[in-house]
Every structure is written in structure tokens, then in C-alpha cells.
Amino acid sequence: MHAPTTVPFRFDPSATPVDASERAARLVDPGFGRVFTDHMALIRWDDAQGWHDAQITARKPLTLDPAAAVLHYAQEIFEGMKAYSLEDGGIGLFRPEMNARRFNDSARRMAMPELPEALFLESIERLVQADRDWIPTMEGGSLYLRPFMIASEVFLGVKPSSEYLYMVIASSVGAYFKGGAPAVSIWVSQGYTRAAPGGTGAAKCGGNYAASLLAQKEAIAQGCDQVVFLDAAERKWVEELGGMNVFFVFDDGSLATPPLSGTILPGITRDSVLTLARDAGLTVREEPYSLDQWRADAQSGRLVEAFACGTAAVVTPIGSVAEPAGRFTIGSGGPGQLTTKLREQLVAIQRGHAADPHQWLRRLD
């Protein structure tokens, strides 16, 4: 059946919201992903009714049957996005339409029902309006939004579920890397890969992140902040970090980033960086880049900067890269000029401080 593009929402406010003074205390230094708001959005889907029972309700634990499909077959997807407090008292969402489209791209890959984009956006906006007091006013603070969908049918058998829960939760956050991370160090995973051709690398599903955890643990053991993966076929081409896309900046002012070949997540921050760089007249290439090239270009000085980007960390400089054969430094080992400029441009648009020629900022007033 065709799902309606709109479903009536009901608002069931929390009977026990966090006290204003306690909320203020939590927002002083929220960190990342540990401080949650009072409410959540929830919409149900089943074969008979399609999308229905849309609500903004108190954030609370879920009750799932032990045989719920998501627990056994990992049929689930999610998104990551932010709401920002603007200087004029309004609230901004950054390119939420792209999150809605990517959510449905992931849903198709995971054999899940697509959520109408209008319904996705309405669920986000209603939750943000309900919990707007949870948006931190500290520099760099924002409300991180996590829309997700899980298979909830009670059965044991390998098939797409006939029932799903779509939810959105919100978390007050500060900087992703504690202390601001002037530049991160990267470990090159040799024994593990993130995704293979024909797999789920381009979908935002939990399995991709679960597969990265052991390699990330290995990176920490090697004294590095993050792990970067090579392609599964040749173990030669740089793909992406455990949760971020990667860019390279060369001495001629050009940029390069690995192409979207089905094994890399099409990041919204990645797309925004590409657009800003092209707007500035820079040459940008989406092309394969090997680990050997990375090492040689860093050592020769041809590569002057590298950075990772994603919703949570925005734009983060990469200072050094470690591998079993040794370690090499990129440029000065700290934030580069272009990396810093692109980050500042992007943040200024997200916060409503700069012109928005592409109309990326969706205002909630």
C-alpha cells in the first residue's frame, strides 16, 4: 500500500520533565551523546495500516519482545543531524531534507518501508519545538537529533519484518572531540574493512558501525584517535574513517576525496564541503586515493592538509597517520589554513552567521 505523506500527530507531554535548574546544570558541559531531552517522536508502521500512530511523547524505555526482528537480524537504520540556536532566538536545522532522502536510501537497501520526507521533517520539527529549551547556548553547543527505525515484528525467520517503529530522540551536545581536538591521529586498519562492493556501506545502518568497533579499539591501542579503512578488494584505496568522510588538500590548492562507489556513506557534511570549495573556485576531485599515495604525498610536501568531516565532528584536521610500518605527519601536524576556513564557513552558515546562498538552513521560528 502507499503510505500517506501526512499522519496526524498527537502530543503527550512528559509528566515528569527535568526541572529547569537541573536542566541548566546538565547543559553546562553536556559532552556528547549522554544528556537526553524530555521527549521523543514515535510513528508505527505495519503491512496493514502503513504509517500511523504518530506522537511526540515522553522519552522512556522501549518494551520489545525477545523475538523482535531487530534483535536477531539487525534490520535497522538511523540518521544524525543537529538543531542550532540562532542569534535572533530562532532555531535552525542544517539541510534536513538531505537526511530525509538518505534515510529512505538506507531504508530501501535494508528492505524497510520508506518514510515520506514530509513526515520525517515534521517529526524532527515537532520534537525540536517541544524540547527547544534543551539546545545548549554554549559556543559549539547544539541539539543532536537521532532519527532511527527498527524492525519490531515478533518472529524468528530471515525475511523483512512486517512491523516497524520509527523514532527520534534528542541529545544536548558540546564538542565531539573533548578539548576541541586541534588535530586527530589516524590508524590505518590492515586486518579489517568497513564495507565491500554490493554490501551496506552506503546505508547508515548499525552493522557498519559495529563492524568498525574492533578496528577503532585497535586504533586506540596504537595511541590514535580514529581508524581509517581501506577498500575490501585490493586493501589499497583509502575509503573513510569509522564514522567520517576524509578529504585531502594539496599544495596547488586543490582538494580530493574518495568517490561514492557504494562502499562509502554519502555524507551531508561531505557534500557541503564539496559545494563550498567549488563556490570558492577551488579544484575538487572525487577520485580514488591510495595509502601509498597518501604517504608519499605527505612526505614530499605535496599533501599539505587532510581532514575528516561528519555531522558530529563537523570538520576535524588530521595531523598524523600511523600504520604498522611507521607514522607520517601531514603538513605541520596541526590544523591547516583551508581546513580551518572551510570549517568556519560551514559553522557560520549552520549558526545563521553568514549568507546562505544554497538555502541550507531550515528555520523554525
Automatic annotation (TrEMBL):
<dbReference type="GO" id="GO:0009099">
    <property type="term" value="P:L-valine biosynthetic process"/>
</dbReference>
<comment type="similarity">
    <text>Belongs to the class-IV pyridoxal-phosphate-dependent aminotransferase family.</text>
</comment>
<protein>
    <recommendedName>
        <fullName>Branched-chain-amino-acid aminotransferase</fullName>
        <ecNumber>2.6.1.42</ecNumber>
    </recommendedName>
</protein>
<dbReference type="InterPro" id="IPR033939">
    <property type="entry name" value="BCAT_family"/>
</dbReference>
<comment type="pathway">
    <text>Amino-acid biosynthesis; L-leucine biosynthesis; L-leucine from 3-methyl-2-oxobutanoate: step 4/4.</text>
</comment>
<dbReference type="InterPro" id="IPR018300">
    <property type="entry name" value="Aminotrans_IV_CS"/>
</dbReference>
<dbReference type="InterPro" id="IPR043131">
    <property type="entry name" value="BCAT-like_N"/>
</dbReference>
<dbReference type="GO" id="GO:0009097">
    <property type="term" value="P:isoleucine biosynthetic process"/>
</dbReference>
<dbReference type="InterPro" id="IPR036038">
    <property type="entry name" value="Aminotransferase-like"/>
</dbReference>
<comment type="pathway">
    <text>Amino-acid biosynthesis; L-valine biosynthesis; L-valine from pyruvate: step 4/4.</text>
</comment>
<dbReference type="InterPro" id="IPR001544">
    <property type="entry name" value="Aminotrans_IV"/>
</dbReference>
<keyword id="KW-0808">Transferase</keyword>
<keyword id="KW-0663">Pyridoxal phosphate</keyword>
<keyword id="KW-0100">Branched-chain amino acid biosynthesis</keyword>
<dbReference type="GO" id="GO:0009098">
    <property type="term" value="P:L-leucine biosynthetic process"/>
</dbReference>
<comment type="function">
    <text>Acts on leucine, isoleucine and valine.</text>
</comment>
<feature type="modified residue" description="N6-(pyridoxal phosphate)lysine">
    <location>
        <position position="204"/>
    </location>
</feature>
<keyword id="KW-0028">Amino-acid biosynthesis</keyword>
<keyword id="KW-0032">Aminotransferase</keyword>
<dbReference type="GO" id="GO:0004084">
    <property type="term" value="F:branched-chain-amino-acid transaminase activity"/>
</dbReference>
<dbReference type="InterPro" id="IPR043132">
    <property type="entry name" value="BCAT-like_C"/>
</dbReference>
<dbReference type="InterPro" id="IPR005786">
    <property type="entry name" value="B_amino_transII"/>
</dbReference>
<dbReference type="Pfam" id="PF01063">
    <property type="entry name" value="Aminotran_4"/>
</dbReference>
